[in-house]
# Entry
Amino acid sequence: MNELNGGLMPLISGVLFALFGLIAWFFVNRASVRASEQIRLLEALLDEQKKQNALLLRLAEQAAGDEESSGDTLQEQDFTRLIPER
# Structure
């Protein structure tokens, strides 16, 4: 019986070591895949934010241009009111 026990012990320990290695590999691989997915999503989010910032900048410039043109017409109207009528 001791010979059987001595022959099976290295086999069982080898199988347990391999099983532990596979479980560790599974969790490391899973974490790597999730990290890659998160990086991909963050890069997509960054691209969308860059597009939104560019659009917001164009809208702000357009609004500033509209305010300047409407401000000029108001100043012209105010200036004409300062001229006394004869």
